[in-house]
Specification:
232 residues, mainly beta, Immunoglobulin-like, Coagulation Factor XIII, Chain A, domain 1, 4-stranded antiparallel β-sheet, 3% helix
Length: 232
Amino acid sequence: MYGEEFYVSFENIEGFNRVDNYAYPGMQMIVISQNGDTVLRYNDLYSDLADGIDYSPLVLYAEATVADPIYSNNDYSLVVNIWDKKGEGTFTANLDFTVVPNDQIKIESNHISYDEIYLFSQQRQIVITDNTSGFNENIFMMFEGLEGFREEAGTVFPGLSITVIDSEGNLILDEEDLLGESGMNYSELNSRLAPNFILTGTHISNPVTCEITIWDKKGDGNIKASAQMNIE
Protein backbone atom coordinates (compact mmCIF):
# COMPACT_ATOMS: atom_id res chain seq x y z
CA MET A 1 0.00 0.00 0.00
CA TYR A 2 1.18 3.52 -0.74
CA GLY A 3 2.91 4.88 2.36
CA GLU A 4 3.74 1.51 3.90
CA GLU A 5 7.24 0.53 4.93
CA PHE A 6 8.44 -2.97 4.18
CA TYR A 7 11.50 -4.99 5.12
CA VAL A 8 13.48 -7.61 3.24
CA SER A 9 15.49 -9.87 5.56
CA PHE A 10 18.22 -12.37 4.77
CA GLU A 11 18.60 -14.70 7.74
CA ASN A 12 21.54 -16.98 8.46
CA ILE A 13 23.34 -15.84 5.32
CA GLU A 14 26.66 -17.65 4.94
CA GLY A 15 29.77 -17.67 2.77
CA PHE A 16 31.53 -14.48 3.89
CA ASN A 17 35.26 -14.52 4.43
CA ARG A 18 35.55 -13.55 8.09
CA VAL A 19 38.44 -11.61 9.54
CA ASP A 20 38.81 -12.30 13.28
CA ASN A 21 35.21 -13.59 13.11
CA TYR A 22 34.00 -10.33 11.53
CA ALA A 23 32.06 -10.34 8.25
CA TYR A 24 32.15 -7.35 5.88
CA PRO A 25 28.96 -7.34 3.79
CA GLY A 26 27.86 -4.81 1.24
CA MET A 27 24.22 -4.41 0.28
CA GLN A 28 22.81 -2.42 -2.62
CA MET A 29 19.07 -1.81 -2.96
CA ILE A 30 17.44 -0.56 -6.17
CA VAL A 31 13.79 -0.02 -7.11
CA ILE A 32 13.07 0.02 -10.85
CA SER A 33 9.83 1.16 -12.47
CA GLN A 34 8.03 -0.85 -15.14
CA ASN A 35 9.53 1.56 -17.68
CA GLY A 36 13.04 0.61 -16.58
CA ASP A 37 13.74 3.84 -14.70
CA THR A 38 15.61 3.68 -11.39
CA VAL A 39 13.36 5.45 -8.87
CA LEU A 40 15.24 4.51 -5.69
CA ARG A 41 18.87 3.56 -5.19
CA TYR A 42 21.07 2.89 -2.16
CA ASN A 43 24.53 1.85 -3.25
CA ASP A 44 25.59 0.31 0.06
CA LEU A 45 23.34 0.13 3.10
CA TYR A 46 26.28 -1.16 5.16
CA SER A 47 28.84 1.45 4.11
CA ASP A 48 29.13 2.77 7.69
CA LEU A 49 30.13 -0.59 9.16
CA ALA A 50 33.86 -0.21 8.63
CA ASP A 51 34.59 -2.56 11.54
CA GLY A 52 32.44 -5.38 10.20
CA ILE A 53 29.78 -7.53 11.87
CA ASP A 54 30.66 -10.26 14.38
CA TYR A 55 27.29 -11.79 15.26
CA SER A 56 26.26 -15.23 14.09
CA PRO A 57 24.02 -16.36 12.51
CA LEU A 58 24.33 -13.35 10.26
CA VAL A 59 21.14 -11.43 9.44
CA LEU A 60 21.07 -8.67 6.83
CA TYR A 61 18.04 -6.54 6.05
CA ALA A 62 16.89 -3.66 3.92
CA GLU A 63 13.87 -1.40 4.33
CA ALA A 64 12.00 0.90 1.98
CA THR A 65 9.03 3.25 2.23
CA VAL A 66 6.54 3.03 -0.60
CA ALA A 67 6.16 6.75 -1.30
CA ASP A 68 7.35 9.49 -3.64
CA PRO A 69 9.05 8.81 -6.07
CA ILE A 70 7.14 5.51 -5.94
CA TYR A 71 3.46 5.90 -6.83
CA SER A 72 0.18 4.01 -6.61
CA ASN A 73 -1.21 1.91 -9.45
CA ASN A 74 2.26 1.12 -10.78
CA ASP A 75 4.46 -1.97 -10.91
CA TYR A 76 8.05 -2.01 -9.65
CA SER A 77 10.96 -4.38 -9.19
CA LEU A 78 13.10 -4.43 -6.07
CA VAL A 79 16.67 -5.62 -6.60
CA VAL A 80 18.99 -6.37 -3.68
CA ASN A 81 22.65 -7.10 -4.38
CA ILE A 82 24.83 -8.45 -1.55
CA TRP A 83 28.58 -8.94 -1.76
CA ASP A 84 31.53 -9.86 0.40
CA LYS A 85 33.96 -6.97 0.80
CA LYS A 86 36.66 -9.44 1.87
CA GLY A 87 35.96 -12.10 -0.74
CA GLU A 88 34.38 -12.94 -4.07
CA GLY A 89 30.92 -14.04 -2.90
CA THR A 90 27.80 -12.33 -4.25
CA PHE A 91 24.05 -12.82 -3.85
CA THR A 92 21.13 -11.21 -5.72
CA ALA A 93 17.42 -11.20 -4.86
CA ASN A 94 14.56 -9.78 -6.92
CA LEU A 95 11.00 -8.93 -5.90
CA ASP A 96 8.27 -7.62 -8.19
CA PHE A 97 5.52 -5.66 -6.48
CA THR A 98 2.50 -3.51 -7.27
CA VAL A 99 1.69 -0.35 -5.31
CA VAL A 100 -1.98 0.17 -4.47
CA PRO A 101 -3.71 3.16 -2.85
CA ASN A 102 -5.36 2.96 0.55
CA ASP A 103 -8.73 1.38 -0.28
CA GLN A 104 -10.18 2.72 2.99
CA ILE A 105 -10.17 6.19 1.42
CA LYS A 106 -13.23 6.51 -0.80
CA ILE A 107 -12.90 8.85 -3.78
CA GLU A 108 -15.66 10.46 -5.83
CA SER A 109 -14.47 12.66 -8.68
CA ASN A 110 -16.19 14.75 -11.33
CA HIS A 111 -13.88 16.24 -14.01
CA ILE A 112 -11.00 16.40 -11.50
CA SER A 113 -8.05 13.97 -11.65
CA TYR A 114 -5.29 13.30 -9.13
CA ASP A 115 -2.08 11.31 -8.62
CA GLU A 116 -2.24 10.43 -4.93
CA ILE A 117 -4.61 10.94 -2.00
CA TYR A 118 -3.47 9.77 1.43
CA LEU A 119 -3.59 10.52 5.14
CA PHE A 120 -0.49 11.86 6.89
CA SER A 121 0.38 12.39 10.56
CA GLN A 122 2.46 15.49 11.28
CA GLN A 123 3.54 14.28 14.73
CA ARG A 124 4.60 10.81 13.59
CA GLN A 125 5.82 11.93 10.15
CA ILE A 126 4.27 8.88 8.52
CA VAL A 127 1.55 8.09 6.03
CA ILE A 128 -1.41 6.71 7.96
CA THR A 129 -2.23 3.36 6.36
CA ASP A 130 -4.43 1.80 9.08
CA ASN A 131 -6.80 4.79 9.40
CA THR A 132 -5.98 5.07 13.11
CA SER A 133 -4.76 8.22 14.85
CA GLY A 134 -4.64 9.81 18.29
CA PHE A 135 -6.36 12.72 19.94
CA ASN A 136 -4.69 16.10 19.33
CA GLU A 137 -2.87 14.63 16.33
CA ASN A 138 -2.56 16.91 13.31
CA ILE A 139 -3.93 14.83 10.43
CA PHE A 140 -3.49 15.88 6.82
CA MET A 141 -5.40 14.60 3.83
CA MET A 142 -2.85 15.01 1.05
CA PHE A 143 -4.04 15.65 -2.50
CA GLU A 144 -1.22 15.47 -5.03
CA GLY A 145 -1.39 16.05 -8.78
CA LEU A 146 -4.82 17.68 -8.87
CA GLU A 147 -5.84 18.64 -12.41
CA GLY A 148 -8.98 19.78 -14.18
CA PHE A 149 -9.47 23.23 -12.63
CA ARG A 150 -10.24 26.17 -14.90
CA GLU A 151 -7.29 28.56 -15.01
CA GLU A 152 -7.28 32.33 -15.32
CA ALA A 153 -3.76 33.60 -16.06
CA GLY A 154 -2.23 30.68 -14.18
CA THR A 155 -4.56 31.10 -11.21
CA VAL A 156 -7.22 28.65 -10.06
CA PHE A 157 -10.04 29.16 -7.59
CA PRO A 158 -10.69 26.03 -5.53
CA GLY A 159 -13.07 25.66 -2.63
CA LEU A 160 -12.39 23.26 0.23
CA SER A 161 -14.73 21.92 2.89
CA ILE A 162 -14.14 19.53 5.80
CA THR A 163 -16.73 17.66 7.83
CA VAL A 164 -16.13 15.13 10.60
CA ILE A 165 -19.02 13.09 12.04
CA ASP A 166 -18.77 10.41 14.70
CA SER A 167 -20.52 7.02 14.61
CA GLU A 168 -23.51 8.41 16.56
CA GLY A 169 -24.11 11.12 13.99
CA ASN A 170 -22.65 13.98 16.04
CA LEU A 171 -21.09 16.74 13.93
CA ILE A 172 -17.58 17.28 15.29
CA LEU A 173 -16.15 19.55 12.61
CA ASP A 174 -17.87 21.51 9.86
CA GLU A 175 -15.81 23.90 7.73
CA GLU A 176 -17.75 25.09 4.67
CA ASP A 177 -14.84 26.68 2.80
CA LEU A 178 -11.33 27.03 4.18
CA LEU A 179 -9.91 28.76 1.10
CA GLY A 180 -12.20 31.76 0.73
CA GLU A 181 -12.50 33.73 -2.50
CA SER A 182 -8.83 34.33 -3.23
CA GLY A 183 -7.24 32.18 -5.90
CA MET A 184 -4.00 30.26 -5.83
CA ASN A 185 -1.26 29.45 -8.27
CA TYR A 186 -2.07 26.42 -10.40
CA SER A 187 1.37 24.84 -9.90
CA GLU A 188 0.95 25.12 -6.12
CA LEU A 189 -2.41 23.37 -6.26
CA ASN A 190 -1.09 20.70 -8.61
CA SER A 191 1.96 20.02 -6.43
CA ARG A 192 0.03 19.44 -3.20
CA LEU A 193 -3.09 20.57 -1.41
CA ALA A 194 -2.96 19.56 2.24
CA PRO A 195 -6.09 20.27 4.30
CA ASN A 196 -5.70 19.24 7.92
CA PHE A 197 -7.73 18.76 11.07
CA ILE A 198 -7.15 18.01 14.76
CA LEU A 199 -9.61 16.08 16.94
CA THR A 200 -9.33 17.08 20.60
CA GLY A 201 -10.71 15.54 23.77
CA THR A 202 -10.39 12.15 25.41
CA HIS A 203 -13.36 10.21 24.08
CA ILE A 204 -15.13 9.90 20.75
CA SER A 205 -17.61 7.45 19.25
CA ASN A 206 -15.56 5.51 16.72
CA PRO A 207 -15.31 5.32 13.85
CA VAL A 208 -15.49 8.94 12.78
CA THR A 209 -16.14 9.78 9.14
CA CYS A 210 -13.86 12.47 7.73
CA GLU A 211 -14.98 13.97 4.43
CA ILE A 212 -13.07 16.54 2.41
CA THR A 213 -14.52 18.10 -0.73
CA ILE A 214 -12.60 20.28 -3.18
CA TRP A 215 -14.42 22.05 -5.99
CA ASP A 216 -13.68 24.47 -8.80
CA LYS A 217 -15.35 27.84 -8.24
CA LYS A 218 -14.81 28.77 -11.89
CA GLY A 219 -15.87 25.42 -13.34
CA ASP A 220 -17.97 22.36 -12.66
CA GLY A 221 -15.27 20.01 -11.36
CA ASN A 222 -15.16 18.57 -7.85
CA ILE A 223 -13.58 15.75 -5.90
CA LYS A 224 -14.53 14.22 -2.56
CA ALA A 225 -12.38 11.99 -0.36
CA SER A 226 -13.81 10.31 2.72
CA ALA A 227 -12.35 7.93 5.28
CA GLN A 228 -13.55 6.27 8.45
CA MET A 229 -10.99 6.64 11.21
CA ASN A 230 -10.54 5.30 14.72
CA ILE A 231 -9.28 7.90 17.18
CA GLU A 232 -7.47 6.35 20.12
